[in-house]
Amino acid sequence: MSVDAIFERRQRAGAPRRATNADSDSVIDVLTAAFATDPVMSWIGRRDAKRDQGRRAMFSYLVKKLGLPGNELWTAADFSAAALWVPPERADLKQPWWDEVIMIPTIVSFTGLTGLARVDAFRKSADKHHPKDKPHFYLMTIGVDPRFQGQGLGSAILDATLASIDAKGLPTYLESSNEKNVPLYKRHGYIVTSEFRPAPDAPPLWGMWREAKAR
Q1: Contacts of range 118-126, beta carbons closer than 8 Å, 24 or more positions apart
Q2: pLDDT tens, residue by residue, 32-49
Q3: Is the pTM of this model over 0.90?
């Protein structure tokens, strides 16, 4: 792969646009692929032949239920990278009971019946560590096409989307589900506020907070 191609791809990731309904399938595809080997996603999700299908169902729900309505779903023009932010008014991820009911088939598709306890443990643990005393943007997910990982695309789209949040003067929060990404987030100004496991056999997550930066 040429240096020029990598540079151009990084430039596109560094100038993302808000995704529209027409982009949803492509964004779902890149996020589904990006998290194929994620430790926490793999622990929560089903372990059978429908594993990939279930993961895609979950990202489809997140994109269509949170990303597009919140208007904070961002994508590189070539769909090599995407980021889903949840705005402050929904950052606590609380839903009315009817939305919880609607979500049940998606959860079952993602985890299988045997994984329902795992997703429940994850949600309760994440909620316990999620800051609740200050309005903030929440980075629900960020992903790079596996073919292009290691080329700086994740850093580029993260910095670009953080710039728009910094302009609003608001802090941000995320959970890193992979230890190798913690240094990347630290380089962007995040600090670790918690490290926790949803269950004794679960991989760890790192809660990370970032105050708004002047640019």
Answers
A1: 118/43, 118/44, 118/198, 118/199, 118/202, 119/44, 121/198, 121/199, 121/202, 122/40, 122/44, 122/198, 122/202, 124/198, 125/196, 125/197, 125/198, 125/199, 125/205, 126/175, 126/198, 126/205
A2: 999 999 999 999 999 999
A3: yes
